[in-house]
Amino acid sequence: MVKGSCHCKKVEFEIAEEELSVRYCYCETCRKLSGGDYSSVARVDSCKFNITQGKESLISYESRPGKNRYYCPNCFSPIYVTTNNELSFLRVRLGLIDGEPKVTVTGHMWVSEKPNWCLIKDELPIYEYEYTGK
Ligand SMILES: [Zn+2]
Ligand SMILES: [Zn+2]
User: Fold this and answer.
1) What is the rounded distance in angstroms from the CA atom of residue 10 to the CA atom of residue 53?
2) pTM of the prediction?
3) Residue 66 lies in a domain
4) What are the tens digits of pLDDT across the range 57-89?
5) CATH number reported for the structural domain that contains residue 14 in this entry
6) CA-CA distance, 124 to 134, in Å (whole number)?
């Protein structure tokens, strides 16, 4: 079981997995909404994601039609992201995870929007746009 929480601990969640599948996303939206060069995003089966505390209080922002991002209303940590046409899975940013579960990074996505100051220093697969595979 992988556990995660927001910065203020009002929101806690669990992922019924022992290992996370992660990709690095360089899209402009992730950069704007995280303040970082890119975000490390875990792809999680929706049925394995369970918010154990603070679910009712989450606030959301629709970053583009059908894409909803849910935040802690107190500390504004980004809890998870859903896309209306892919409701079987959701995305969780790795920075919210507590502890150090096993992680497999499967590639870099939205590299078409990567800023030039952000360098890729590994041999992982590169996807110009979205990558929805495992
Ligand atoms: Zn919080
Ligand atoms: Zn992104």
Assistant:
1) 7
2) 0.91
3) yes
4) 999 999 999 999 999 999 999 999 999 988 999
5) 2.170.150.70
6) 14
Residue 87 included in any domain: yes
Over residues 108-128, the mean pLDDT reads: 95
Domain that holds residue 75: 2-113
Q: Which ligand is nearest to the CA of 33?
A: 2
Ligand number nearest to the C-alpha of 72: 1
Rounded to the nearest angstrom, the distance between the alpha carbon of 113 and the centre of ligand 2 is: 9
What DSSP assignment string belongs to 91-110?
Answer: EEEGGGEES--EEEEEEEE-
Cα distance between residue 20 and residue 35, in whole Å = 23
Q: Is 102 contained in some domain? A: yes
- Asked if residues 66 and 84 have their Cβ atoms less than 8 Å apart, the reply is yes
Distance 54 CA to ligand 1 centre (A): 9
Structural domain includes residue 98:
yes
The tens digit of pLDDT for each residue in 7-25 reads 999 999 999 999 999 999 9
Q: Kindly list the distances between the CA atom of residue 40 and the CA atoms of 10, 12, 19, 57, in Å, as whole numbers in the listed order.
A: 22, 19, 14, 25
Confidence band of 133 (pLDDT split at 50, 70, 90) = confident
* Number of structural domains the chain divides into: 1
